[in-house]
Design goal:
57% helix, binds zinc ion, mainly alpha, 0% strand
């Protein structure tokens, strides 16, 4: 259970986040790209926080005065920022490339999480697949964040194949909630994504 003090019941609701954040800066926040997408509340919550730069990545911890070398837990090459981790890291790019291959589209990622979500309309995706398309960035963000935390806390090894599987599995699990006649297996789901 996530407690959220902005609502009377203290239970988390995406709508309550909407009011808290949206009031500050309505034009620049991709609210409909998060709150209108059918994914689990914990995923929406994470993406709201990430979009507002409130996820505690190493660069933010450094800004709070902690001195240490900032290295991304996934690639060990670049510094960890939220935009690097969720968009530009070479390991994360594997998931974005997989996504574009599954949908059969060409796409250029924008520089920030916020810009990416604002541009994520999917007007070229068929009506049947549009809800899934809209859920995809959120599922990538969530998959990468979970993998990153596992590497941080468990001293685990990043396996790209496992990362790809977790992403497709996460997307399939979320899609079950809203696809009519949803594909019963991951393989049939992958075929469904590639259909028109
Ligand atoms: Zn990286």
């Amino acid at each position: 259970m996530v407690f959220w003090t902005e609502t009377k019941s203290e239970k988390f609701s995406v709508k309550s986040l909407y009011y808290v954040y949206e009031l500050d800066n309505p034009s620049l926040f991709p609210s409909s790209c998060i709150s209108n997408v059918w994914v689990k509340p914990k995923i929406s919550f994470f993406v709201w926080e990430a979009t507002w730069g409130k996820i505690l990545t190493l660069d933010l911890i450094q800004k709070r005065g902690w001195a240490f070398a900032n290295r991304c837990f996934l690639c060990y090459e670049k510094e960890e920022t939220i935009d690097h981790l969720l968009l530009h890291c070479t390991k994360t790019r594997v998931l974005w490339d997989l996504l574009f291959t599954l949908f059969g589209v060409s796409w250029v990622l924008l520089s920030s999480v916020r810009e990416t979500l604002l541009s994520w309309h999917g007007s070229f995706v068929s009506k049947k697949r549009k809800k899934v398309w809209r859920a995809t960035p959120l599922c990538i963000f969530w998959t990468v964040w979970k993998a990153r935390n596992k590497l941080t806390f468990n001293d685990d090894v990043l396996l790209i194949q496992r990362l790809k599987y977790f992403f497709v599995f996460s997307l399939w699990s979320e899609a079950k909630l809203f696809i009519v006649d949803y594909p019963l297996t991951i393989v049939s789901f992958i075929n469904w994504l590639g259909s028109s």
